[in-house]
């Protein structure tokens, strides 16, 4: 039976450390602040927003909400982004994506100041992830995978890692973060030839393809660590990951549940990025 790697204890440990950092910032007269920009009312955005706000409140981070109707114009959204860029009291921005199809998402992301990009949506932040220079912030979900590994004592150095999924939100950044930690990384996707064989060779398997059950029993091998990043809804309306959980639980060494795994850590990573951005804005060290 696999060890269950839950996200809650990881988030709790991070939150405890971050509360102290937020207190030190406030003692220096700095009120760390996150701007949340949401267009429309997608249920998944609302759910993540509630979680982010709750985490920020626990830690001592202020939140400013910028909510636009689903039919807002490109200029209205860009005006909000410019306001955030120009407001010295705002240290980080969370922009919910995907945006409605009539909006130019790439242009909106490019308009955000890189110093306020705490979720890795600008080209500068992504370049930092790929170069490993540590200047920008990686996407929070990709970084949450590393936080889970560190908390549960899995050292990536020298390990064979397979990441299934090539998006710029999770798959590619997660692969680069693992490479920066000296893992030997194979990046796969839904069109990889003999995906199952590639997955079975992994000591660490990260599933981020966005397809329910794509990682089945034929992809798994004894002793693996499996991080399931997928968020899908099955025919019965239940939240499920990319991994066949029952199959994994019977074979692998450790697996993250969905829900209750990576997602529980993501908001804590977001909060850490905001605090770090606030400290950088004042040229102080946490």
TrEMBL record:
One GO cellular-component annotation of the UniProt record comes to: cytosol
Pathway the protein contributes to:
One-carbon metabolism; tetrahydrofolate interconversion
Where's the Tetrahydrofolate dehydrogenase/cyclohydrolase catalytic domain? 6-119
Biological process GO terms, please?
Answer: L-histidine biosynthetic process; methionine biosynthetic process; purine nucleotide biosynthetic process; tetrahydrofolate interconversion
Instruction: Please give the superkingdom of this protein's source.
Output: Bacteria
Q: Where does NADP(+) bind?
A: 165-167, 231
Q: Which GO terms describe its molecular function?
A: methenyltetrahydrofolate cyclohydrolase activity; methylenetetrahydrofolate dehydrogenase (NADP+) activity
**Which EC number(s) are documented for this chain?**
1.5.1.5, 3.5.4.9
Catalytic reaction(s) noted: (6R)-5,10-methylene-5,6,7,8-tetrahydrofolate + NADP(+) = (6R)-5,10-methenyltetrahydrofolate + NADPH; (6R)-5,10-methenyltetrahydrofolate + H2O = (6R)-10-formyltetrahydrofolate + H(+)
Sorted alphabetically, the keyword list is: Amino-acid biosynthesis, Histidine biosynthesis, Hydrolase, Methionine biosynthesis, Multifunctional enzyme, NADP, One-carbon metabolism, Oxidoreductase, Purine biosynthesis
Per the record's keyword annotation, is Hydrolase included, yes or no? yes
Q: Where is the Tetrahydrofolate dehydrogenase/cyclohydrolase NAD(P)-binding domain?
A: 139-280
Report if keyword NADP is assigned.
yes
Q: Give the function comment from the record.
A: Catalyzes the oxidation of 5,10-methylenetetrahydrofolate to 5,10-methenyltetrahydrofolate and then the hydrolysis of 5,10-methenyltetrahydrofolate to 10-formyltetrahydrofolate.
Which family does the entry's similarity section mention?
Answer: Belongs to the tetrahydrofolate dehydrogenase/cyclohydrolase family.
Q: How does it assemble?
A: Homodimer.
Its name, as the record gives it, is: Bifunctional protein FolD
Its taxonomic placement starts with: Bacteria, Bacillati, Bacillota, Clostridia, Eubacteriales
Which gene holds the coding sequence for this protein? folD
